[in-house]
């Protein structure tokens, strides 16, 4: 049986063997002629003698062609049978032929009654086999193929009906012919209110005449138009849409339809071009895009998401103008004033783009990423929820009491401090390569019986001359390090003094890089090393979200804002200054101490993850990009220009924040075995938090960290993808850290390898 393929636009349709139903009450030359023609054409043929059997056969087989004998009304009513068939859904795309008598002695009768009955066309009796065959072949390549294409349109309309984008189809004269449910929802109309209406009858935003002329001049010459457009809903509200309008070429090579595809401007939209005419032929090529591995979005996109826009009313413009006339003018106010002034003389597309920019600038969280809710990786969602929020404000009868009533270790309660000269050989050996990035902190942890911070601190602080800068004795420094280490919780699997020592080591390593040394002053180096040492002191092994949900005294004390980081910084100064034996600041001049204290606090608070993207974006835009521009312009030898970028007070703050942030979460950039060990430790701490949340009936802020189901490779890849890659790309571009980036790439491959084998554990089985 022949099977043909039919090309329908870009669709390739597969047409099976055609089926023909012959409805003849008696066998005669005419019925035999069509039967022979079906055999010759390769069509499957069925014969029915009565209307009842014809209807039953059609409902069973769904024929493509039905040929009904209309020559002898004494047998059955051919028109009544056709009407019966047409009442069925299956007949929508069926071709029905009426065989009529040949009359040579009277005037030709009208075909309209047959058309009204549902026939597609008539066939004047001719029993010639070739005449029957020719009729069938003409039907196959004419009406049957056309109906076959129309049948395929059902799938296209199903796709349009289910599309989440609003779609509108108009005629060449801009008469609305179709809108999908998404369009109805977006605009507030029912389809019956729009069909056969001209676009001019549907309300549009005022002052858009010039803008519409721009659009029409583009689409009327066969080009696509894409850009942002303000439309008015049925209730009168203005909405901002990203719109693409596509002209559809039809009969005669003329534009016969326009298809408009719209979506609301929402939080996840990237910054778009305001107006763009696109040649239809090159559209597919121009839409290809490249993404860096393991990226969900670029830095610039994350830093320019907005809350959307409902348009700017005249009333709001006048009230905003009064606000901007105030004499208290912050930098952001100046920017908004400049944009407002630019709008006055700008064409409509530019003014609308500036409206969107103003909406972005008026949000309070300019740098916070906004995750989708449906397709977002649950590991990423949970990590962001657990690390970048202050918990779910849910009332609970349980209270998690922490720190405020605990007794902290002070100098007098500790054993006599060891001396730098009294370090045992095994510990000395473990610290031999502490200036190298591949230094093994876990070897030092084992050698010191989980007290690595005192020993590593003594060595690193001596190397940087901290005692000389602070004008304090070595014994005071030793006492201070012991007090700080004693207030880290050794029971925590991750946030213990080994983590502090690891961050101290990374900080010292970064401070030794040439670009960093050019940038920071001695007081900055001292502040960075002290901040690294104390940045997680008295950490309870639970996240800020947990403490807020549990109603802990610390969360209440710090108003659910940067709870732990505020506590670490405050407690560090409390422990230091309450006892002269460990007060490393006691001999400092007052103003210098205040400056040092300010830098330490700022760096500790920078480790809080809610402002992660703000710190990274500011670093990229204020430091990476200006330095790159100088290098691209051939000014890398211009020391003064580079110095201006590096040494400005604002940029030095950004560099110090970035330095401690990278040191704090540098685990994925460590050698593989260290990376794996840290991954196991942080996972165990999160597992323990999930266990406790369930025991206490608290909201579970990171559900994927269930020790029975969690995939550690997936969680590591999500963390690296979302937090690590962009940040270390930026830091590497500044400080030149090829060894770290090599470790990072190797560790990504390692976790991907485990995940690709559907393994949820730290290491593959032996």
Strand content: 5-15%
User: What is the CATH topology classification name of the largest domain?
Assistant: Catalytic domain of cyclic nucleotide phosphodiesterase 4b2b
Question: Shape from CA axes?
Answer: elongated
Mean pLDDT level: 82
Q: Briefly, what CATH class of the largest domain? A: Mainly Alpha
CATH homology superfamily name of the largest domain: 3'5'-cyclic nucleotide phosphodiesterase, catalytic domain
* Low-pLDDT segments, ≥5 res: 267-329, 393-405
Rg of Cα set:
38 Å
Strand order of the largest sheet: 9-8-12-11-10-13
Largest sheet: 6 strands, antiparallel
CATH architecture of the largest domain: Orthogonal Bundle
Measured distance between first and last alpha carbons: 58 Å
- What is the tally of beta strands? 13
Q: How helical, in percent, are the residues?
A: 40-55%
Q: Quickly count the domains.
A: 3
Overview of the molecule:
- Helices cover 50% and strands 11% of the residues.
- The chain is α/β, with parallel strands linked by helices and 766 residues long.
- The protein has three domains: 5-103 and 110-160, Rossmann fold; 163-264, Beta-Lactamase; 382-388 and 424-628 and 639-756, Catalytic domain of cyclic nucleotide phosphodiesterase 4b2b, CATH 1.10.1300.10.
- It has a six-stranded antiparallel sheet. Strands 4-3-5-6-7 form a five-stranded parallel sheet, sandwiched between helices. It has a two-stranded antiparallel ribbon with strand order 1-2.
- α19 (497-511) runs antiparallel to α21 (522-534), α21 crosses α25 (590-606) and α25 (590-606) crosses α28.
- It is elongated and about 130 Å long.
- Mean pLDDT is 82; it is low at 267-329 and 393-405.
């Amino acid at each position: 049986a022949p099977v043909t393929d039919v090309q329908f636009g870009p669709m390739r349709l597969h047409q099976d063997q055609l089926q023909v139903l012959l409805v003849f009450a008696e066998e005669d030359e005419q019925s035999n002629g069509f039967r022979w023609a079906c055999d010759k054409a390769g069509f499957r043929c069925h014969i029915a003698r009565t209307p009842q059997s014809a209807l039953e056969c059609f409902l069973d087989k769904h024929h493509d062609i039905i040929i009904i004998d209309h020559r002898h009304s004494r047998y059955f009513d051919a028109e009544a049978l056709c009407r019966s068939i047409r009442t069925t859904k299956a007949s929508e795309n069926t071709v029905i032929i009426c065989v009529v008598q040949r009359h040579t002695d009277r005037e030709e009768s009208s075909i309209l009654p047959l058309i009204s009955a549902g026939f597609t066309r008539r066939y004047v009796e001719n029993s010639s086999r070739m005449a029957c065959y020719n009729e069938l072949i003409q039907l196959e390549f004419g009406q049957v193929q056309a109906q076959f294409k129309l049948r395929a349109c059902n799938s296209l309309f199903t796709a349009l009906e289910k599309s989440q984008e609003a779609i509108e189809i108009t005629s060449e004269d801009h008469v609305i012919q179709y809108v999908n449910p998404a369009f109805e929802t977006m605009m507030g109309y029912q389809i019956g209110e729009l069909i056969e209406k001209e676009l001019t009858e549907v309300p549009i935003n005022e002052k858009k005449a010039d803008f519409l002329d721009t659009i029409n001049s583009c689409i009327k010459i066969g080009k696509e138009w894409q850009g942002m457009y303000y439309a008015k809903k049925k209730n009168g509200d203005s909405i901002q849409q990203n719109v693409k309008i596509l002209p559809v070429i039809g009969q005669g090579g003329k534009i016969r339809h326009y298809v408009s595809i719209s979506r609301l401007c929402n939080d996840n939209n990237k910054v778009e071009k305001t107006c763009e005419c696109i040649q239809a032929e090159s559209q597919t090529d121009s839409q290809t895009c490249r993404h860096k591995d393991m990226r969900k979005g670029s830095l610039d996109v994350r830093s320019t998401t907005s809350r959307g826009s409902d348009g700017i009313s005249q009333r709001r413009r006048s009230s905003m103008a009064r606000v901007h006339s105030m004499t208290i003018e912050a930098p952001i106010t100046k920017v908004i004033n400049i944009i407002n002034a630019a709008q006055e003389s700008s064409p409509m597309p530019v003014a609308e783009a500036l409206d969107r920019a103003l909406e972005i600038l008026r949000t309070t969280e300019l740098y916070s990423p906004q995750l989708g809710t449906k397709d977002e990786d649950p590991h990423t969602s949970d990590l962001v929820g657990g690390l970048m929020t202050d918990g779910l404000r849910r009332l609970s009868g349980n209270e998690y009491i922490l720190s405020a009533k605990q007794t902290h270790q002070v100098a007098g309660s500790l054993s006599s401090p060891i001396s730098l000269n009294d370090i045992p050989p095994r510990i000395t050996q473990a610290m031999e390569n502490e200036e190298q990035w591949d230094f093994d902190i876990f070897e030092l942890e084992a050698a010191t019986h989980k007290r690595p911070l005192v020993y590593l601190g003594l060595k690193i602080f001596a190397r940087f001359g901290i005692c000389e800068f602070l004008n304090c004795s070595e014994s005071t420094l030793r006492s201070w390090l012991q007090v700080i280490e004693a207030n880290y919780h050794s029971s925590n699997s991750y946030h213990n003094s080994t983590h502090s020592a690891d961050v101290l080591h990374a900080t010292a390593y970064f401070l030794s890089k040439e670009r960093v040394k050019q940038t920071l002053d001695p007081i900055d180096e001292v502040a960075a090393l002290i901040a690294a040492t104390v940045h997680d002191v008295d950490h309870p092994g639970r996240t800020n979200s947990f403490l807020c949900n549990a109603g802990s005294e610390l969360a209440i004390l710090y108003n659910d804002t940067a709870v732990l980081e505020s506590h670490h910084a405050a407690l560090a100064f409390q422990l230091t200054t309450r006892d002269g034996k460990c007060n490393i600041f006691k001999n400092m001049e007052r103003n210098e101490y205040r400056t040092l204290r300010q830098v330490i606090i700022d760096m500790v608070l920078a480790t809080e993850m809610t402002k992660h993207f703000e710190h990274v974006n500011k670093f990229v835009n204020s430091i990476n990009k200006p330095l790159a521009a100088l290098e691209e312009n051939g000014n890398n030898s211009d020391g003064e220009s580079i110095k201006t970028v590096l040494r400005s007070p604002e940029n030095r703050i950004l560099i110090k924040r970035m330095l401690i942030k990278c040191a704090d979460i540098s685990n994925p950039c460590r050698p593989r075995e260290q990376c794996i060990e840290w991954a196991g430790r942080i996972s165990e701490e999160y597992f323990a938090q999930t266990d406790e949340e369930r025991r206490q009936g608290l909201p579970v802020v990171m559900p994927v960290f269930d020790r029975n189901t969690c995939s550690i490779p997936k969680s590591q890849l999500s963390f690296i993808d979302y937090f690590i890659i962009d940040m270390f790309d930026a830091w590497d571009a500044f400080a030149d850290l090829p060894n770290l980036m090599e470790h990072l790439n190797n560790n990504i491959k390692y976790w991907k390898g485990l995940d690709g084998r559907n393994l949820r554990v730290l290491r593959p089985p032996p």
